Amino acid sequence: MSNSSEAELLHTFKGIPFTTRSSPELLKSLDTFDAREDDVLLVSYPKSGTHWLAGVITKLYNTQVTITSPIEFGDISKLEELNKLSSKRIIPTHLDYNMLPPNFKNKKCKMIYISRNPKDTAVSMFHYYRENPNLPTVDTWTAFFDLFLKGNGKHKCFFLAVLVSFLCTERDLPKVVKEITLFLSLNVSDNDIQDICEKSSFSEMKNDTEKENSDPSHTVCALTSNRKLIFRKGAVGDWKNHFTPKQNIRFEEIFNEKMKLSKMAKCLIY
Ligand code: A3P
Asked: Where does the Sulfotransferase domain lie (predicted)?
């Protein structure tokens, strides 16, 4: 578990907490980012399956693509590094829609929003904080549960994350992947989609170190820095091993209230 002090690890930008993985200079300069029309943006709340989605998209494209680390992670040199990459760039982000570099919207770049049962997201994030020495210290599940609901200080509030359109990772996978191909205008046969789904299973992705080792851009831009940390359990419903019945009721009350205008509420919670 980390013993780093919160003060060292956190700062806020436009009222939103960031860890020092995102330098204030980089965040300020995002507005100037030169997006390209063929960039694809993967938008998510952390621990929602970003790496799974990135892996599937890489497999769907026949041509060489580069998956970068989230655009908001790094220092002021990040945008220059991204500029040097040849197309096609697949760029993840956990930023709210209104904080995205405006060029992504002006150039009508494709954006895919991925989400997951928020109870599993909360549990996944709890373990990630516990195991990652670069993140603020988290002592107990009970303490983390409160912070997740309130979003006060240690991470952005889940319920304030803006929805654009969404995929839900717990639906029929071939159907989800088919939807992705249609959205990205890719011509991929149903057999290939089936094959990609099999290769994108939790166990395959956890063990897939080949790409990491052979990708020259890995050191500056790779999304996956530590496979063991990211691919932890990959289970649907792990929240049941953590939530008390009381926490479950409280979570659902808050979720239903905050998300009542969103289709996501109906799709995700159970
Ligand atoms: P757990 O911590 O519950 O295991 P992100 O990529 O956004 O950081 O999300 C990571 C979470 O997605 C982890 O959750 C990870 O196991 C899960 N995940 C990633 N790929 C997966 C896959 N192919 N199948 C199931 N879960 C997967």
From this structure: 38-262
Work out the pLDDT band at 9, boundaries 50, 70, 90: low
Query: Which of the 8 DSSP states describes residue 89?
Result: E
Element (H, E) at 18: strand 16-19
The set of protein residues with a Cβ atom below 6 angstroms from ligand 1 is 44, 46-52, 120, 124, 127, 200-202, 205, 230-234, 238
Which atom in ligand 1 lies closest to the alpha carbon of residue 46? 7
**Ligand 1: which atom is nearest the Cα of residue 123?**
3
104 contact partners, CB below 8 Å, separation of at least 6: 33, 35, 39, 41, 111
Cα angle for residues 48, 53, 57 (degrees, 5° grid): 165
Query: Separation of 230 CA from ligand 1 center, angstroms?
Result: 6
The model's pTM is 0.85
Task: Give the span between the Cα atoms of 64 and 234, in whole angstroms.
Answer: 27
Ligand 1 center from residue 198 Cα (angstroms): 15
Residues in the chain: 270
Helix, strand or coil, per DSSP, at residue 236? coil
ipTM > 0.90, yes or no: yes
Is there a contact between 90 and 42 (Cβ–Cβ < 8 Å)? yes
Nearest atom, ligand 1, residue 54 CA: 6
First-residue to last-residue Cα distance in the chain: 31
For residue 232, the CA-to-ligand 1 centroid distance in Å is 7
Written as six digits, the tokens of 157 are 């509030």
Provide CB contacts within 8 A for 154, sequence distance 6+.
Answer: 6, 10, 17, 129, 136, 138, 147
Question: Domains along the chain?
Answer: 15-268 (3.40.50.300)
